[in-house]
Amino acid sequence: MDDKVNYTLVGGFVLVLGALLVAGVLWLAAGLGGRQAMDAYQAVIQESVAGLSIDAPVKYLGVDVGKVARIEIDPQNSEQVRLHFLVKRGTPIKRDSVAVLKAQGLTGIAYIELSGGSAGSPPLLAGADGEIPTIPTKPSLSARLENVLSNVLANVDRVSNNLNAVLGPDNQAALKSTLADIATLARTLAGQQAAISAGLADAAKAARLTARAGEQFEPTLARIASSAQAVERMAEVAGKASTRAGAAADAAATSAQQLGSETLPELARLMAELNQLSASLRQLSEQTTVNPNSLLLGKPAPQPGPGESLP
């Protein structure tokens, strides 16, 4: 039996097996097995992207959905950075989705976080000419903190300048003079402490006398109030009397008007008839005086005039 080993075949087998093993590792590392289709997106960010590198993760609400493919200065604006992403197809990126630069934990490894996208918003798709869709961005937490700190420092600097202007040499001299005057006033008040105490005592005594006078004046106020009530009742009575007098005056005016419109015409007619009767009586009296027998014979016939004959 021949037990001689062919080392050439063994070496070749080992080399082939090693090559296959390396190829399999590379294949798995490159994601060739079950490789998922990716979509390209871009974003323009207006802040520093320090810490962000190629192949940095792109997450959607914390879930890895892609990676950063390229980082470059925006050729249209040198103050902006243009980022290119590769995102798994089917990721719900909408037109109102936003991209934010974030740092992971304490390590400070930067990544891109995608968020937003309401249910009613349409998906963000490439343009008709194949232009890569652009995801809007918003400032990161560090950028917002930097802006807030910048505003705070600017306000502090402005307040410091105002204080320096207020506390200038002229104002310091005026403040020193005011403090000196206050100290002088305090010493003067301390010297007049006895007079001030006496004045306070007199004021307290005057207050007590005023209170006592008020207690004594209270019955007088009560009588005045009672008199006022009596005057008010008299005013009410006078008002009622005035009302009744007005009613009587109205009735008298009505009666006078009725007398003028009804009685006076009748009285005038009666006077006219009396005048006629008086004239008739006067004529009868004159006729009786001239010819008494006219009462029995009637009125005599008138004498004929010149050229007239008796009937």
Q: Which key phrases capture this entry?
A:
single chain; 311 residues; alpha+beta; 6-stranded mixed beta sheet; 6 strands; 56% helix; elongated
- Proportion of residues in extended strands: 15-25%
The biggest beta sheet, please? 6 strands, mixed
Radius of gyration: 65 Å
Low-confidence stretches: none
Instruction: Count the E strands.
Output: 6
Percent in helix: 55-70%
Helix and strand pattern: HEEEEEEHHHH
Strand order of the largest sheet: 1-4-3-2-6-5
Q: What's the rounded overall pLDDT mean?
A: 79
Globally, the shape reads elongated
Briefly note the structural class of the backbone. alpha+beta
Q: CA-to-CA gap between the ends?
A: 222 Å
Total of DSSP H or I helical runs spanning 4+ residues: 5
Tell me what you see in this structure.
56% of the residues lie in helices and 15% in strands. By secondary structure, it is an alpha+beta fold. Among the domains are: 35-138; 146-171.
